[in-house]
């Protein structure tokens, strides 16, 4: 009759044999250094290894994949983009964006990815606040879509230092000024004499250019011009109001409640030029706006903050300033800088100048310049603004707003 040995006894015997067969020099030790009492039993099956996360894209892959999809991209911080073909490496004007590349020594903007920095990340990842980020390798996550009309990342949702080891040396700090001209279709013709200039020389030459061969409109003609320049791209029967963003019938213009009228972005009382032919009818700064919102803005300077404005989502105002919605902050800034260059006191009107104050009243000045410069960087020219500039040039006044074509010229003239 076979002898049945209990399983527990078999396990104990096998365990004892295993311990006895291990040489003392190879015996397991406890945390305190003494031999362990027993060997662990073998597992039935090893646990599956965790799945590896997808590797981040390189910058060159991201530049070639501008389809709007979300992705993580790894690259070295090489500067701050300020225009389509301009990246500054020092003297960073703001915390709104950074440029990354596959090499920390990259200097060609065509091999860079422009990364938009949302407000919640700016204090930690903006270059003005953190210049030591230059040359560091980062992983950034967001939508692969154009920024500053350049391959980029928008709606950025995460920033982190790369887990990889940075081997590329940081780029040298530039001691030369940032370029004052980007490549554009009018650089070899309309702007040819301005390319390469900076500061007062650029101001003077741009004034000459945009004041030459201009057709001056009457205030009545402005109604017709605005129906063309500010036409809703989705509905040719409407115009888009500048501050509210509302689409409204072209025919619904006038002075009644909920109609649209002609807003002077550079308030006409700032220099007391009224609506006479000249700055008062310059369609580069005249825009459709709801009658009530226009009245709320009045002749306020521009600045951040205040209380919500009725019928104008995203707009704020207080006793001395008005803040438009984010989508047109740059538009407003570039209109103000255009007016300052176009109307500089040599046409029989006041010399219009931006300053860093609010509450300017009837002085020929509008602020707040430091905020307007930030808005110019924060909100680059979009398709609507560019089309408007072209229509004014082709059909109405036959001059251009140079700061739409070259937004970097704001800092070239007025400083970072």
Provide structural commentary.
By secondary structure, this protein is an alpha+beta fold. Helix 7 (329-342) crosses helix 8 (369-378). It is globular and about 60 Å long. It has a five-stranded mixed barrel with strand order 1-3-4-6-5. It has a four-stranded mixed beta sheet with strand order 12-15-14-13, covered by helices on one side. A three-stranded antiparallel beta sheet has the order 7-8-9. The model is unreliable at 1-47 and 164-181 (pLDDT under 50). The protein has helices at residues 7-21, 59-63, 122-125, 199-210, 219-229, 291-297, 329-342, 369-378, 383-396, 402-405, 409-414, and strands at 70-83, 86-88, 97-101, 112-116, 137-144, 152-161, 231-232, 235-240, 247-249, 260-264, 286-290, 301-302, 307-309, 312-317, 321-323, 353-354, 365-366. The protein contains eleven helices and 17 strands.
Number of helices: 11
Average pLDDT figure? 85
Number of strands: 17
What amount of the residues lies in strands? 15-25%
Radius of gyration: 31 Å
Q: State the helical fraction.
A: 10-25%
So what's the oligomer here? single chain
**Which overall shape is indicated by the principal axes computed on the Cα atoms?**
globular
Order of helices and strands: HHEEEEHEEHHEEEEEHEEEEHEEHHHH
Strand order of the largest sheet: 1-3-4-6-5
**Would you identify the regions where 5 or more consecutive residues have pLDDT less than 50?**
1-47, 164-181
Structural class label:
alpha+beta
Main β-sheet: number of strands, strand sense, barrel status? 5 strands, mixed, barrel
The span between the termini is: 99 Å
């Amino acid at each position: 009759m076979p002898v049945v040995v209990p399983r527990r006894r078999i396990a104990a015997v096998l365990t004892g044999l295993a311990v006895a067969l291990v040489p003392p020099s190879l015996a397991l030790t406890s945390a305190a250094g003494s031999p362990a009492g027993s060997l662990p039993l073998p597992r039935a099956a090893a646990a599956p290894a965790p799945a590896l996360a997808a590797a981040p894209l390189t910058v060159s892959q991201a530049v070639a994949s501008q389809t709007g999809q979300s992705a993580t991209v790894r690259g070295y911080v090489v500067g701050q983009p300020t225009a389509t073909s301009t990246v500054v490496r020092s003297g960073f004007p703001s915390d709104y964006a950074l440029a990354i590349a596959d090499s920390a020594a990259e200097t060609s903007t065509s091999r860079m990815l422009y990364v938009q920095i949302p407000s919640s990340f700016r204090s930690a990842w903006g270059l003005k606040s953190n210049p030591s980020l230059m040359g560091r390798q980062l992983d950034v996550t967001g939508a692969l879509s154009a920024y500053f009309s350049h391959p980029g990342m928008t709606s950025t949702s995460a920033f982190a230092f790369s887990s990889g080891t940075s081997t590329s040396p940081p780029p040298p700090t530039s001691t030369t000024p940032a370029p004052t001209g980007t490549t554009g279709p009018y650089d070899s013709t309309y702007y040819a004499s301005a390319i390469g200039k900076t500061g007062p020389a650029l101001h003077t030459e741009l004034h000459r250019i945009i004041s030459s061969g201009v057709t001056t409109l009457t205030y009545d003609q402005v109604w017709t011009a605005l129906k063309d320049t500010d036409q809703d791209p989705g509905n040719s029967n409407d115009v888009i109001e500048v501050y509210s963003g509302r689409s409204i019938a072209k025919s619904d213009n006038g002075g009644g409640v909920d109609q649209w009228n002609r807003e002077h972005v550079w308030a006409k009382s700032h220099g007391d030029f009224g609506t006479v032919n000249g700055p008062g009818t310059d369609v580069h700064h005249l825009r459709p706006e709801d009658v009530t919102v226009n009245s709320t803005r009045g002749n306020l300077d521009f600045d951040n903050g205040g209380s919500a404005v009725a019928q104008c989502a995203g707009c704020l105002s207080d006793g001395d300033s008005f803040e438009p919605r984010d989508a047109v902050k740059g538009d407003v800034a570039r209109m103000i800088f255009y007016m300052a260059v176009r109307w500089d006191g040599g046409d029989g009107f006041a010399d219009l100048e931006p300053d860093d104050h609010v509450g300017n009243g009837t002085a020929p000045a509008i602020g707040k310049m430091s905020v307007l410069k930030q808005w110019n960087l924060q909100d680059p020219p979009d398709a609507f603004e560019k089309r408007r500039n072209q229509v004014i040039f082709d059909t109405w006044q036959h001059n251009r707003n140079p700061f739409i074509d070259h937004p970097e010229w704001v800092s070239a003239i007025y400083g970072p």
